[in-house]
Design goal:
The structure holds two protein chains of two kinds. Chain A is mostly helical. Chain A has 27 helices and no strands. Chain B has eight helices and 21 strands. In chain B, a hairpin with a 4-residue loop joins strand 5 and strand 6. Classes of the chains: A mainly alpha, B alpha+beta. The complex binds adenosine-5'-triphosphate and magnesium ion (MG).
Chain lengths: 623, 362
């Protein structure tokens, strides 16, 4: 996402015209703000062929692909928002431009309500996430709370849970009538009842599940902070409390704000949680409302496109602000220095902080898991009282049998795997090409390639879905309704995250390694094949798994692009939920979670490093 | 105001390995500047941080003006904020989210001063370090040397009892370092603060310190005036660390007060200064600085002939490697011309007061 932060300069592919420019601007490493001597390159002899033509053709090809994947569908979305025709019914021939859709949308009270609900839910969720995430970052990085590393690791788990599954689990726990929590309360004779089918319910789940996101941002800022900044305050006479509020927090403020904006953006695009918790009580948010518009008959594609545009504009504005915050005042990064973070000795209070951490982990990991297990394995979800919960006779594989006896289930799993593999392969190759070109070459139009590849950050999944719908539904050729349209939409949607993972692993490969191969007489492509790719392998595997995992979870864009032949797991799961069968839904959720866990586990093994942490940052963004 | 710092048997062990500071004792008189000098990892920073209260000593006592501030045996540990000490960090630790003035005012805010008194103190401190015109700049827009002076102003603005400086010049380029080194001593002396200064740069130590303490492996090997460190190094480590590059094995033949005669491997005898009094016949090491090995004829004792084995011409001076006394001795000759070619015979004089003998390590 922060492509801005990547040092942009290298000349692996040599272009005579750019030598001079390279030598002067090369290697302005933003982290240290000092040019390093090894970054300054000297002109090297060029191969006899015309590398300039080749690089032009290459950049042109990339731009063409990106246009096809990103620019064209977004353009069609805009066109769709501005037309009064229905592409399915009328075709594109008699399309007329008008602002009617926007006028209708802006005058529609449901849109106002949906917008207000969206903003409220996201603001509330973000606030809760900041409180929890910041507190955890502080506990783990700055105090001697026992089991800090364990807390941090387990605390990341929520990021791996698809929002839809989280929504399902909390619906099972907190539905006002049959919720498990309420059953327990009733059997304990307590009058209080939880009701998560509310805006506060959505806020609660948002806050709980996106706290790790804030944690990631702030913990690394805290960790990278020069401890002497705080020591200086303490020596100056400030108390620990005063130091925290006048020095520590102001210093990591950019990280906090940027994490806040990012989680707000992510929440704004989520469909699964409001669909599960908001729908029963009829609480519309932008995402659920957009989908509603397209499922009416006749579908209101034009209106949906304009609401999607609104969602995209809000998101885009937030992304721009976030980038500004991130690049503007980052005090914290001090290059190449390892700090030993100061740890505060809490004394007996460390058991209190540990207890808070355990409570959080219990609420966010244990409770939902238990709820899914109970719902999936109990014959009847109705539980008379607390004791009935432990009646072994009540448990069976019944719902799993029912789930798999439905041929659509197996089909959806197969479809999902196919889409996942296609997405991972296409997306992996494209992201490598983009990442390498932008970060490592002097190819023309790199900046444009970089910008276009980053644009999807600002496009929620659901909006991509609507855009692809508009882009392909009216065209002959039957592309709409195949698994390819799903795969390409996913590739477009997750391109920024994939490029980011790949670029950071490319950055770890020192340029001189490539230059050495190049001096040995290898060409650019041969160098990439023999040096760069093998060295970047962990990054490539991580990026491809990330894509695979993300596409398994992706709900927002799938909703608009699946057909009866290409039903995917996430959509199938939602239809079970909406059909009202909690037990089978829970069983299917568990299947999906196990699949994800196996995948992520296998990749960590294969790359022998902390892939989950890399992946987590991308996972958080997926709706 | 300026206080006396007394450290007694200070010991600090981390979880790993041998103690980082091992039984260090010294006293700094009010207004005195003491420099701790030593190779990397010898425990200088740890000592300083124990005095600041940022590190908790495992044993020993630290007192300021007679108040015990750290005494683990008695359960005393005054937190840093209550010690009234100023500290300049190696990384400066100026707060990047504040202006110069905000940085320097910060320590005064918790001291219950009036606005006017604060402003006056800040203005005075900024004047002292020549930063008055930069007062309202964000510190991120300052050069390294200016940041360093902000850190200095911030640490002195509240007239602390003691000023601690941890390699404050090490992040600056060589030229600036030379200039600030002189400025620093002038500024500290003008305020009359007691100061403890840590560095691994000998030149800095000599210019800045009223006294220098040489540390090695967590122990204080010698604490004395710069002249004494250079002319009377207390042991072989101090001699070697401060630049005695020639070490020759020998055996004690005769002893006469502070001086004695040692017998070299080739049988010649050398008169030398020796701080300890080992038994006759003990194996010793003769230590000589290249500057103190004089080439050419001179009267008096310790007069030898040597042969030039090799020479290293360095522009304004030449270092000769001489075969003499059954070993190799480095001698330095100033001047842009090297007078003695390789292989030639030269006469060598070793002034007894600047030729030191130490008991050989076993
Ligand atoms: N927090 C710590 N935990 C464990 N060991 C430490 C810690 N701080 C310092 N040490 C060890 O204590 C020893 C002394 O460290 P110290 O920082 O005092 O050295 P120094 O003399 O300041 O060196 P330098 O000139 O490199 O700054 C070193 O061996 C170091 O590894
Ligand atoms: Mg140090």
């Amino acid at each position: 996402m922060d492509t801005e932060a990547f040092p942009v300069s290298t000349n692996i592919i040599q272009f005579p015209q750019t030598w001079l420019a390279t030598a002067t601007q090369a290697g302005h490493d933003r982290a240290t703000r000092h040019p390093r001597p090894e970054d300054v390159h000297h002109p090297m002899p060029t191969p006899a062929t015309s590398p300039r033509l080749f690089s032009r053709a290459w950049s042109g090809l990339l731009l063409l692909i990106l246009t096809f994947l990103i620019v064209y569908p977004t353009g069609m979305l805009l066109l769709g928002a501005l037309t009064d025709a229905n592409p399915v019914v009328d075709g594109f021939a008699n399309m007329r431009l008008s602002l009617d859709n926007f006028a209708t949308v802006l005058a529609n009270p449901t849109v106002h309500a949906a917008l207000a609900n969206s903003l409220l839910a996201c603001a509330g969720g973000t606030a809760l996430a900041v409180i929890i995430g910041l507190f955890f970052a502080w506990i783990v990085v700055r105090t001697d709370t026992p089991f800090g590393g364990f807390i941090a690791a387990i605390g990341m788990l929520p990021l791996f849970v698809p929002p839809l599954v989280a929504g399902v689990a909390w619906a099972i726990l907190g539905s006002p009538k049959t919720g498990l929590l309420n059953t327990v309360l009733a059997s304990m004779g307590i009058g209080f009842r939880f009701d998560l089918y509310t805006l506060s319910g959505i806020i609660f789940v948002f806050g709980m599940y996106y706290a790790p996101y804030i944690y990631m941002f702030t913990a690394s800022a805290l960790r990278n902070m020069d401890p002497s900044l705080e020591e200086a305050a303490e020596i100056s006479g400030a108390s620990a409390f005063r130091t925290m509020f006048t020095i520590t927090f102001p210093l990591i403020l950019p990280a906090i704000v940027s994490g806040m904006l990012l989680s707000f953006i992510v929440m704004l695009g989520i469909y699964g949680v409001p669909a599960t918790l908001g729908a029963p009580a009829n609480i519309p948010v932008l995402t659920t409302y957009i989908f509603q518009l397209t499922s009416w008959s006749p579908p209101r594609y034009g209106t949906a496109a304009s609401v999607a545009m609104i969602l995209m504009l809000v998101t885009g504005a937030l992304v721009v602000i976030q980038q500004k915050v991130l690049s503007g005042r980052s005090y914290v990064t001090v290059a190449g220095k390892a700090f030993r973070p100061r740890t505060l000795r809490l004394g007996p209070w460390r058991w209190f902080t540990l207890a808070l951490a355990v409570i959080y982990l219990f609420v966010v990991v244990v409770l939902p898991t238990v709820a899914l297990l109970i719902a999936a394995f109990r014959k009847f979800l109705y539980i008379r009282n607390f004791d009935a919960l432990f009646d072994a006779k009540q448990y069976s594989w019944l719902h799993f049998d029912r789930l798999f006896s439905n041929p659509a289930t197996v089909d959806s799993i197969i479809n999902t795997m196919q889409v996942g593999i296609a997405t991972a392969l296409i997306g992996g190759v494209l992201a490598f090409a983009v990442g390498y070109t932008v970060a490592r070459t002097q190819a023309p139009w790199r900046r444009a390639i970089d910008v276009i590849a980053t644009v999807p950050v600002a496009i929620p999944g659901l909006v991509i879905g609507v855009a692809y719908l508009w882009a392909w539904i009216g065209l002959p050729g039957g592309f709409y309704g195949t698994i390819w349209i799903l795969a390409l939409a996913f590739v477009a949607r997750f391109l920024p995250d994939t490029v980011k993972v790949l670029t950071s692993s490319l950055m770890q490969i020192h340029r001189e390694l490539e230059e050495a191969a190049w001096l040995c007489g290898r060409g650019t492509l041969s160098t990439i094949a023999t040096i760069t790719l093998p060295l970047a392998r962990p990054g490539v595997i991580a990026a491809m798994t990330l894509l695979f995992v993300l596409s398994i979870r992706e709900l927002g864009s799938s909703l608009f692009l699946y057909s009866s032949q290409t039903m995917v797991m996430a959509v199938h799961l939602l239809s079970y939920y909406e059909g009202g069968n909690f037990s089978v839904t829970a069983a299917f959720s568990l299947v999906q979670m196990v699949l994800l866990a196996v995948l992520i586990g296998l990749t960590s093994l294969a790359t022998r490093r902390a892939t989950p942490m890399d992946a987590a940052s991308g996972l958080g963004r997926a709706g | 105001m300026s206080a006396e710092l007394a450290i007694r048997n200070l010991e600090k062990s981390f979880n790993t390995g041998k103690p980082a500071v091992d039984g260090v004792s010294f006293t700094i008189a009010p207004g005195e500047i003491v420099v701790l000098l030593g190779p990397s990892g010898c425990g200088k920073t740890t000592t300083l941080r124990c005095v600041a209260g940022l590190e908790h000593p495992t044993a020993g006592e630290i007192s300021l003006d007679g108040d015990l501030v750290s005494a683990p045996a008695k359960g005393i540990l005054t937190p840093p904020r209550a010690r009234n000490i100023g500290m300049v960090f190696q990384s400066y630790a100026v707060w990047p989210h504040m202006t110069v003035r905000q940085n320097v005012t910060y320590p005064l805010r918790t001291r219950g001063m009036t606005r006017a008194a604060m402003d006056a103190a800040v203005a005075e401190a900024l004047d002292l370090v020549d930063l008055a015109i930069y007062a309202d700049r964000p510190v991120t827009q300052l050069s390294g040397g200016q940041m360093q002076r902000v850190a200095l102003a911030r640490s002195m603005v509240y007239a602390p009892r003691l000023l601690l400086l941890d390699e404050p010049l090490s992040n600056l380029d060589a030229q600036l370092r030379l200039r600030l080194r002189d400025d620093l001593r002038r500024i500290i002396k003008r305020t009359g603060l007691t100061a403890l200064y840590v560095t691994h740069d000998q030149q800095e130590a000599v210019v800045l310190g009223d006294r220098i303490g040489v540390m090695q492996g967590g122990k204080l090997r010698q604490m004395a005036t710069p002249a004494e460190i250079y002319n009377r190094p207390a042991d072989q480590f101090v001699a070697e660390f401060t630049g005695a590059s020639s070490m020759l094995p020998c055996r004690l033949a005769r002893r006469d007060g502070e001086f004695g005669t040692v017998e070299m491997a080739d049988g010649s005898t050398v008169e030398a200064w020796m701080p300890a009094a080992p038994a006759i016949g003990t194996a010793m090491v003769l230590a000589i600085r290249p500057e103190n090995a004089l080439l050419g004829a001179a009267g008096g004792s310790n007069h030898f002939t040597a042969k030039v084995h090799a020479l290293r011409y360095q522009g304004t001076q030449t270092i000769y490697e001489l075969d003499a006394l059954g070993g190799r001795i480095e001698a330095l000759e100033l001047g842009t011309a090297a007078r003695h070619p390789q292989g030639s015979e030269v006469s060598l004089t070793l002034p007894p007061a600047l030729t030191w003998a130490y008991a050989a390590a076993v």
